Amino acid sequence: LFARPWEFLTSVTDMANLPEAADTEIAFAGRSNVGKSSLINALTGRKGLARTSSTPGRTQMLNFFVAPETPLTIVDMPGYGYAQAPKDLVDAWTRLVFSYLRGRPNLRRVILLIDSRHGIKANDLETMELLDKAAVVYQVVLTKADKIKPPQLARLITETRALLAKRIAAHPEIIATSSEKNKGVDDLRAELFLLATQ
Ligand code: GTP
Ligand code: MG
């Protein structure tokens, strides 16, 4: 599935222009700069597929990625919680992300990225609440695991697991990743493969 040549399909800035809801969609969500676009590149093995940047606010539209004969569309989204851009713009991104998460019929799973150094924040909880209400299953993926020490990571996983146990639509599995060191990427691939072929 991920050995295929993934390519960019389209970008949209409003719900009216979404591509046809044809196959299984999975979307990458999380705070600004958490590493959504980098993880999509690591998964697909295509470094420049989704644009990344050390400056938050890089991804500003819903970006759709597809591969030939693959029943799966990957969606990269703007991050939430970025306070430095003009408020109108940030509000528009957040509205778009939340309407998409709430109202996309073929959205099968949300990969909810959490920075290993920061853990779950208030706006991540808001997103979880929205997904719980919309009954969209979300999977927490810890990012930038190369930035913290193994015992710290182990503690974060334990805490996160306890928090997720109380949520409605949370997938129980937590995957720790590093796009930089290619860690945990195979595990996530395996999960998405199962999802796409089910
Ligand atoms: P927005 O689109 O702005 O919301 O950001 P994003 O979540 O798509 O993050 P992006 O993938 O652009 O990465 C943000 C920064 O984090 C970049 O400088 C990346 O190089 C860095 N980064 C991403 N993943 C990792 C990782 O696993 N390890 C390390 N050390 N840095 C990472
Ligand atoms: Mg991005």
TrEMBL record:
EngB-type G domain mapped to chain residues = 22-198
Q: Which residues form a coiled coil?
A: none
Q: Which family does it belong to?
A: Belongs to the TRAFAC class TrmE-Era-EngA-EngB-Septin-like GTPase superfamily. EngB GTPase family.
Q: What is this protein called?
A: Probable GTP-binding protein EngB
Q: Which GO terms describe its cellular component?
A: cytosol
Give the gene that encodes this protein: engB
| Gene3D superfamilies the record matches | P-loop containing nucleotide triphosphate hydrolases (3.40.50.300)
Q: Which domain of life is it from?
A: Bacteria
Q: Which CDD domains match?
A: YihA_EngB
Q: Which GO terms describe its molecular function?
A: GTP binding; metal ion binding
Q: What does this protein do?
A: Necessary for normal cell division and for the maintenance of normal septation.
User: Sorted alphabetically, which keywords does the UniProt record give?
Assistant: Cell cycle, Cell division, GTP-binding, Magnesium, Metal-binding, Nucleotide-binding, Septation
Q: Which HAMAP family match?
A: GTPase_EngB (MF_00321)
Q: What is the lineage of its organism?
A: Bacteria, Pseudomonadati, Pseudomonadota, Alphaproteobacteria, Hyphomicrobiales
Which Pfam families does its entry note?
MMR_HSR1
Known cofactor(s)? Mg(2+)
